[in-house]
Specification:
The structure holds 2 protein chains of 2 kinds.
Chain A (H helix, E strand, L loop, with lengths): L3 E4 L2 E5 L4 E7 L7 E6 L6 E6 L5 E4 L2 E6 L4 E6 L8 E9 L9 E4 L3 E6 L1
Chain B lengths: L4 E3 L2 E4 L5 E6 L6 E7 L5 E8 L2 E5 L7 E4 L6 E5 L8 E8 L9 E2 L3 E5 L1
Parallel strand pairs in B: 2-11
Antiparallel strand pairs in B: 1-3, 3-8, 4-5, 4-9, 5-6, 7-8, 9-10, 9-11
Amino acid sequence: QQQVKQSPQSLIVQKGGISIINCAYENTAFDYFPWYQQFPGKGPALLIAIRPDVSEKKEGRFTISFNKSAKQFSLHIMDSQPGDSATYFCAARDPGSGIQGAQKLVFGQGTRLTINP
Amino acid sequence: EPEVTQTPSHQVTQMGQEVILRCVPISNHLYFYWYRQILGQKVEFLVSFYNNEISEKSEIFDDQFSVERPDGSNFTLKIRSTKLEDSAMYFCASRPLRNQVYGYTFGSGTRLTVV
């Protein structure tokens, strides 16, 4: 129930194309769904996040689509560029219990995205 | 922009030895975390720390692990007797307030290699 399932494992897209990464979850207690971008040797960096009461959020070329009833969400990268080549992780925030809830993040398996020039 | 700083960036240790991984969270942050990432796998939660005590820990965080905030600025992860399977990237993270996911910041990690 704590899992977040992510697909595909790897993705190759031509420059200018649309990259789409999908995630699914089971735990309805999750209260926030961020996407992280990770370059080799670096820590995950927050890209964009969405609340479960919102169906879509757009920031520049990055869009999250969220389907609460299906418990699925996806990241769309429009006009993909070689600099977008990285590993992308979806995540879900588990608020925890009590006023000092841990708010740990549960990560998907990651998608290695390669944008060909 | 404020950063979470981790040292060392890479540590090689013999199996059975103790290691201490160090982190300096962002100064006004109140919640601190350790996550780990085995090579090529997902990032996994280890432990969260608030108000000088552990607020939650995962099954991975067994008696070999401990965390400490020794001096009000550093946040450390100690592995008492390292095993080969402890080889991973260890990420420290911190965040300021209860509901700010945008403040959740990760460090660049310490690559721990146990030989």
